[in-house]
Specification:
CATH superfamily: SGNH hydrolase
CATH class: Alpha Beta
Strand content: 5-15%
InterPro entries: SGNH_hydro_sf (IPR036514)
GO molecular function, one term: hydrolase activity
Structural class: alpha/beta
Protein name: SGNH/GDSL hydrolase family protein
Number of strands: 5
Largest sheet: 5 strands, parallel
Helix content: 40-55%
Strand order of the largest sheet: 2-1-3-4-5
Keywords: Hydrolase, Membrane, Transmembrane, Transmembrane helix
Number of helices: 12
Distance between the termini: 70 Å
Radius of gyration: 21 Å
Length: about 325
Amino acid sequence: MNRVKKIVRYLLFFGILAVIFLGLSRVFYPKDNSVEAGMPPRDVKVNGIFGAENNSLDVIFFGDSITFTSIKPVQIWEEQGIASYVCGQSGQIIPEAYNWLKQILEKQSPDIVVLETNLIYMDGSMADQLNHALELQLASDLPFYKYHNRWKNMDESDWSRQPEEPKPDFTMGYEKKTAIVPYTGGDYMQTESAKEPLAFVPESYLDAVHRLCEKNNIQMMLVSIPSPQSWNGSRHDAVTEYAQEHDVLYLDLNLYAEELGIDWKSDTLDGGDHLNEAGATKVSKYLGTFLKERYGLTDHRGNAAYTVWDRLVEDQ
């Protein structure tokens, strides 16, 4: 009997604690989607997706800075009539993409979720990766954990004011970069060593994203953006093996750099890690055409429900 009472007391304690933290999460959550309001700078663009019209996006991209400097949703719309959004962050890793996707699917029902493969490779030991993933999960489920340092800048209005609905980023997640620093190395896709296997933690989260997509009748696609500094033949082989084992489409654009027309003297902003505006235009043209032809996506141009996209084209 005493044991039962102890269990009940523990449950009550943790239940009350959970209610308190949930309440504090609402208070501490930034009241608008700006750095000034306390939103982390790397979250601002991706958080803008929650301001998009419900169930209006065909494709959602996830990835790190390689992704948001290389994929131009407004260009893809102008050329193909496909509505997409780049949910990219500097240094984004697969656990973050999974947490974002769970939230996004409450408002969107895309046909395709595209993961840029650099986010699969996490730094550190397995223990470090697991701890990092758990921290990200806690921050996603309990915003108070993520935003508790906001107390220094809070005022009375934070206790009663509801967060504003974010406004979509006018570039739909893309970040324009015009600098030019040439890549002068050689053929970086030659396989000189055994494949670089996927580590346990990121592969587990990749599986979780795949299951989540299947549950929601979404096609998951893997894509590698041309990047001599971040990609190689060994990583290509490992991702190819995963894609084949899980019946997932994998498009490695590093193998099509010549077909895309990538000029490493002028299309990279930092010596081959990220593409600049010129390179992004070429990747977006190819990727938009590929998505349209491969998946038969609807061309929404001329549809009155998508006039916001026409305005975005005019504003570019």
